[in-house]
Amino acid sequence: MSERVSRRRLMRGAAVTAAAVVVGFDPATRSWATEIGRRTIPVPPLDGSLTMEQAARQEAADDYGHIVHRLPYAVLRPGSVNDIAVMVGYARANRLKIAMRGQGHVCFGQAQVEAGIVVDSRTLNTIHSIQQDRAVVGPGVTWAELLQATALQGRTPPVLTDFMGLSVGGTLSSGGIGGASQHFGVQVDTVRELQVVTGRGDVMTCSPSQNRTLFEAVLAGLGQYAIIVKATVALVPAHTNAQVYNLYYADLGTYLADQLMLLRDGRFSYLEGQVQPRPDGAPGWRYMIEAVSYYTPPTVPDDAALLAGLSDDRAAATITPNTYLGWAYRLDPAVEFLKLIGDWYRPHPLLDLFVPASRAESVVGAALAALTPADIGIGPILLYPANTQRFTRPLFRVPAEPEVFLFSLLRTTANGDPQLLTRQLASNRAIYEANLAAGGTWYPIGAIPGYGREDWQRHYGPLWSRVVANKHQFDPDPVLTPGQRMFP
Fold it and tell me: Taking the model in full, what pTM does it have?
């Protein structure tokens, strides 16, 4: 193929100037070339594009956290799975790093690549098929888009995250927890099959019965072993309606006890909860159980039965009807409002922990005693239980107890104040260490300063040797997802 034809294929679908289009890499200067020279190693023909466009690189050097900024050399907008395989192989041959970026909703540079290649998964956003019990989708499809399509056939993914604008590839790389996890596990537990590109550049299909070691390494594998390029995820029947119960408590211990009771008997379809500032403005916190019963008329929820046995010390309760889709997309207006007022674009040093249920009152109580609403900002604090027996993927790390609590500080840094951000990050580290000492684990999507290889060894514990073996087998050089700082 001529250079002219190769460049035309490279440009396909790319709204960039010719000067921004990458045609090769110069290993002597460790830089990309926009013209073929004597030392240039040409980029193979692509169905999509590889661009040095400044706007694309700047976007890839940011994420929802707006804290870490690592500028890549170039951004790949793949037109096919083969584009990713070709560029992983190219990166490996030229000692470059590469990572896939979905919607950029991680918070501490996990999907960024300093002086490397970022793959923009949004161009692989095809819903390939929808059947009664499964859907096959590209990694750039968001859960909102998938539900919109499956709902037309009366189906739904079993577990939905609260914010639906996350990509399928992104959440399957980390876990994907939600209010239905009490029944179905996390989103990685609902995957039937994957197609991936390993760090060797091999396109492989994996499932519980085919290449199982790779399958278990990729799900919740944080992008360390392969890039997800297609996923087959489970579907279940979708109800039409949702009855929402908000139950308020003044006492943490009572709240935790009622949450565990609801978890154990599974009476609600969805079970989450929040820690909120006291409504009277006084110091301290109140606690809200957020529970939902899904139903399809003429069947309707029995409110008295659903609330039976709960503590009489509840401060208040509200019951609100909704549709299933209205509930699933409930955060969309709030997200648009946060974008409008600018808070969406401020730093978000989030912290997500799994706390052993046996230590939840002491760990969470101590953390909250040291926090004020100003330390959190506009975001909520999530606190709700999960049954660890529902979690089947080995790299999704949770405490060694049958029940745990997700404790999430969804922080915003008011006005982007750098001193407040520094304090928030230091607080994250301190709360993380206290939870770790109590037998807890980290859900690694947020911001903990200084997190490195020793922390990862503690995180994986007895599985660390398996993690290292997976890396040697599937990404031996290593080239994939350096932003996790797992294999520096």
Answer: 0.93
